[in-house]
Amino acid sequence: MILTYKIKHNKDFSSELKKAHQIAEVALRTGTQTTADVKQYGLKSIIANQVLREYARNRKIKRVGNVNLIAPSQGISVKEHKIRVPSLKLEIPYQFPDNFKKINQIEFDSVYAYISVSVEAPKAIKPKGFVGVDLNTTGHIAVVGNPDSGKVLKLGKEALHIHNKYKSIRKKCQKNGKFGILKRIRNREQRKIRDLNHKISNKIVETAKDNQYGIKLEKLEGIRNNRKHRKNFNFALNGWSFYQLQQFIEYKAKLCGIPVAYVEPKYTSQECSRCGNIGTRQGKEFVCQSCGHFDHADVNASFNIAKRDGIGQFSTDRDVLKGSTDTPRGATLRTKETPNQEEPHPFQWWEDVRYVKAIS
Ligand SMILES: [Zn+2]
To answer: Across the beta sheet with 152-155, what order do the strands follow?
Structure first.
């Protein structure tokens, strides 16, 4: 799989970026793919070549916008936690795990280097069961439940607090006409939520790994139109933060061989996880009139998610859902919540991982 780490390069590339922009304009205008044609701009040909490849004969691009520098894998070397990019006379120290197979390319904008690396993911384990992850805009952002053991993890209670805090700051700024600050505040909020998403995903994957469970997530397209979420469709606690959290969970799980499956989100919050009938949900309380089951609504939803077939999952996989039933349902063990306690994690993500493409 491919991971992209985003780190600050601490170098002034304004002159190179300007040259790249000029080259892109030439490429778009003339369609040339020959570095000799743009030699006069003085950008190293290995970099210029990447710009030409992107802009020449690309009919989708009508005008040149932001042009980044792209250094291909040739020439890049790695030694003692430093990446050397000779074509840009650059040496970047990095902190991320150096278990990658190779660097595919590095893209540079004025502030960041986006380092794309290939990482060998282990073969997925045969899980003893699944945890379901229920995402919510109120209360805890993620509620993780395993219906076999009855164990539940509630994570990210602070998300709503973060969101409300920035919402009120944004309102004040809008009222006072301080629009310049708005973008900065948006970025700060995004950073906070991202950090939180890293913590939550670490915890979920760690728990799954410890118990040899797979992870089931709700397919997100459904969440946007889901009645449960529609009312609370707000800036930070909506699509992008859920999507980011799922991405974090997915790539971290893949890195340690934990299978991840997506399920249809329909009725996950209305169905009774014990008998399957539709119950009533009021706030965070779920009651089933058919069997009398009473539970925390998000916990009930997480159990439903865990029990559902994954999309594209074969029916033979259903057997793996039947894990240990040693713990009777009544004796539900709830994990203690320690929201303020920073726990050391086996996974450390010093840099931001921008996206992940699962190739295998
Ligand atoms: Zn029921």
So the answer is: 152-155, 142-145, 130-135, 214-218, 260-263
* Separation of CA 270 and ligand 1 centre (Å): 10
217 shares its domain with 313: yes
Element spanning 8, H or E: strand 2-8
Are 194 and 186 in contact by the 8 Å Cβ rule? The answer is no
91 and 157 both lie in a single domain: no
Q: How far, in Å, from the CA of 49 to the mean position of ligand 1?
A: 63
Q: Which of 16-30, 140-154, 180-194, 312-326 has the lowest mean pLDDT?
A: 312-326
What's the confidence (pLDDT) of residue 181? 84
Task: Find tokens 């990447």 and name the residue.
Answer: 50
User: Above 60 in pLDDT, residue 105?
Assistant: yes
What pLDDT band is residue 219 in, cutting at 50, 70 and 90?
Answer: confident
CA 348 to chain centre: 15
Query: What is the whole-number distance in angstroms between the Cα of residue 273 and the centre of ligand 1?
Result: 7
CA–centroid distance, residue 93 to ligand 1 (Å): 56
Ligand 1 midpoint to CA 295 (Å): 10
Half-sphere exposure of 21 (CA within 13 A, CB side): 13
The rounded distance, in Å, linking the Cα atoms of 267 and 269 is 5
pLDDT digits (tens, 9 = 90+) for 275-301: 999 999 998 999 999 999 999 999 999
For 49-78, what is each residue's pLDDT tens digit? 999 998 987 878 888 888 999 999 999 999
| Structural domain count, the chain | 2
- Determine, yes or no, domain membership for 29: yes
CA distance linking residue 221 with residue 9, whole number of Å = 36
Q: Are 69 and 110 in contact (CB under 8 A)?
A: no
Q: Which residue has 């994957």 as its token pair?
A: 205
- Cα-to-centroid distance, 289 and ligand 1 (Å): 7
Distance from the alpha carbon of residue 233 to the mean position of ligand 1, in angstroms:
29
Structure tokens at 319: 């057997």
The Å distance, Cα 268 to ligand 1 centre, comes to 13
Distance 267 CA to ligand 1 centre (A): 13
Domain-ending residue, one of 54, 85, 119: 119
